[in-house]
Design goal:
Elements lengths: L7 H41 L17 H6 L3 E6 L9 E2 L2 E2 H18 L3 E4 L9 H10 L4 E8 L6 E5 L5 H17 L4 E6 L10 H5 L4 E8 L3 H9 L1 H25 L6
Parallel strand pairs: 1-4, 1-5, 5-8, 6-7
Antiparallel strand pairs: 2-3, 6-8
Helix pairs in contact: 3-8, 5-8
């Protein structure tokens, strides 16, 4: 049987229904776009804005002093000599490795209180090869390398050893430290020496393999009762004297570097 043809009135009604449906769908699409845009905008605002509670005062960044500016990026490597299976020298149950670490920790604490960054080759009773000690300093790009030790033998007092071909900054560092310690009180200032006790252009490993100005600081003789008493009684004062000398040297040579007059490094 042949299908009945739609009348003109029916065709007009179908067309009107289709147009209405398209209009409704378009409205839903537009509403959806607006809702999505608002959601995205809200997320972006939440990610990029910090909401501050009302009546909450803003914290101001403290002003940086000239001294603190000069110390920005200032790093000191403190090396407590010996450690672990290596006792160093000893006397009547007293071990060099322990004295070295005790002073190293006191020096670390003081320097950090002065806003100086410190790296330690060891902060406990552990053993490190000399090459590992220098690597700690060099990897940290330390500005100075301070190796703490003690003497033993016929003698008394404090001395320091620097690289045989040390630059002006290394020399000043050693001399300033010796002067500072002498001000606190030591049994004898044995001075600043170059190379090693063997002479002939030889150098101690840490002085010749450190990239930074360095020194070995011999904090008295372990078999000297006077040196031992001074170290025990003046530990904090010694740490402060060494720390202040380090900072003084750094500030002086940083100023020279800024004006292009430094003969160091």
């Amino acid at each position: 049987m042949a299908a009945r043809r739609k009348s003109a009135k029916e065709k007009a009604l179908d067309s009107a229904i289709r147009m209405a449906s398209c209009g409704i769908m378009l409205a839903f699409v537009l509403i959806g776009i607006q809702m999505f845009s608002g959601f995205v905008e809200t997320k972006l605002m939440a990610q990029n804005e910090v909401v501050k509670p009302e009546n909450t005062p803003l914290l101001e960044t403290p002003a940086i002093t000239d001294t603190e500016e000069e110390q920005t990026g200032f790093t000191v490597c403190i090396d407590a000599g010996h450690g672990g299976k290596d006792n160093g020298c000893d006397y009547k149950g007293r071990y060099e490795k322990d004295d070295n670490l005790t002073l190293a920790l006191a020096l670390q604490e003081y320097l950090q209180s002065q806003n100086v960054k410190v790296v330690m080759t060891r902060d406990d009773d552990s053993f490190l090869k000399l090459s590992a000690r220098c690597r700690v300093s060099n990897d940290a790009k330390a500005d100075y390398y301070i190796s703490l030790h003690r003497n033993k033998g016929e003698g008394y007092g404090i001395e320091s050893w620097i690289y045989s071909n040390a630059n002006d900054e290394s020399i000043s560092l050693a001399e300033n430290i010796m002067k500072g310690l002498e001000t606190v009180g030591i049994s004898r200032n044995r001075g600043v020496s170059y190379g090693t006790s063997e002479g002939n252009g030889s150098d101690y490993y840490v002085n010749s393999h450190s990239n930074a100005p360095s020194l070995i600081l011999e904090m008295g003789f372990i078999n000297s009762s006077e040196d031992n008493k001074l170290l025990d009684d003046q530990k904090e004062a010694y740490a402060k004297a060494i720390g202040d000398a380090i900072i003084e040297t750094y500030q002086a040579y940083q100023q020279d570097k800024k004006t292009g007059d430094s003969s160091g490094l």
